[in-house]
Amino acid sequence: MLNDNLLLKSILDKFNLSTQLQITCVNKDKKLKVQSSSTSYNLLKEEIDLALSSSKKLQNYIDTKMIEFVSLEENKEVGIIYINLNNEINDYFILGPFSTTNNLEIISYPYRPKYCITYIADLLLIIIKDSKSFNCKITEKFFSLNIKKTIEYIHKNYDEQLTIDSISKMLNIHKCYFCNSFKKETGMTFTNFLCKFRVEKSKELLLNPSLSILDIAISVGFNNQSYYTMMFKKLTNLTPLEYRKSLI
Q1: Which of 36, 85, 138, 187 has the smallest CB count inside 10 Å?
Q2: Could you report the per-residue pLDDT of 131-151, keeping only the tens digit for each?
Q3: What pLDDT shows up at residue 86?
Q4: Ranges for all domains in the chain classified under CATH 3.30.450
Q5: CATH architecture type of domain 5-136
Q6: Which residue has the higher pLDDT, 243 or 10?
Q7: For residues 81 and 190, which has the higher predicted lDDT (pLDDT)?
Q8: pLDDT band for position 171 (50/70/90)?
Q9: Is the pLDDT of residue 60 over 60?
């Protein structure tokens, strides 16, 4: 279920990485669930309460593309969207704080014009749906302890050099037994699973046009750009550059 806080936090961190904008998830009872990882712009509980109590349009609204803007104080705003996605997410997402005034002398948080926030809100939906698509096969299956540990380790250390030998040594099991068990339980070889996960992670970084394809390849654990491009093309039928252009 997407409402699992670990998965929600992963989604919010992806969003924050892509937009450099703080995001907070609050349930329908207006209780804080998750915030994106440490940032200078964390909302205080009082600000969250103020934002939600000031919201008028979203109380019973189902359209996930609608966003409402709420002023917390002069030059300090948040955007609120309510998402109800196949009964798996039924929460408020608060984007910000941000300023719609581009004056660095009077603000200490990101400048984002309102028209920009509406597009950024759509990005959140893309990240949620991509995360759901990739994680559903993993979260709905039962795995043995060794395979579960391996998947969790990949999630946390995908950007490092991971090999069958290193994982087998970590688990203290024979590598042939590990390979057979991993393929049997996940339906993929360890190498294919790792590459697929790295490619999915790289999609988040491709949203940032300032990052080169080489930088992205290295950031997610590929040793060189050529191999990264080949695997990306194999899994998506697009090169990383073509995928980036498709997002524009």
Answers
A1: 187
A2: 765 555 544 456 788 998 999
A3: 55
A4: 5-136
A5: 2-Layer Sandwich (3.30)
A6: 243
A7: 190
A8: very high
A9: no
pTM of the model: 0.52
- Length of the chain, in residues: 248
Cross-strand partners of 70: 78
Q: How far is CA 117 from the centre of its chain?
A: 17
Residues 152-175 as b/e (b if ≥16 CB within 10 A, e otherwise) read ebbeeebeeebebeebbeebeeeb
Distance between CA atoms of 10 and 33, rounded to whole angstroms? 13
CB neighbours of residue 57 within 10 Å: 12
**CA 190 to chain centroid:** 23
Higher per-residue pLDDT: 69 or 39: 69
DSSP string, 24-76: EEEETT--EEEE-SS-TTPPPHHHHHHHHHH--TTTT---TT--EEEEEETTE
CA angle 27, 33, 37 (to 5 degrees): 140
The secondary element (H helix, E strand) that includes residue 246 is: helix 240-246
pLDDT of residue 3: 47
Averaged confidence pLDDT in the chain: 82
- Cα torsion 246, 155, 44, 39 to 10°: value is -70
Q: Give the DSSP H or E segment for 99.
A: none
Fold category of 141-246 in CATH: Arc Repressor Mutant, subunit A (1.10.10)
Q: How far is CA 154 from the centre of its chain?
A: 16
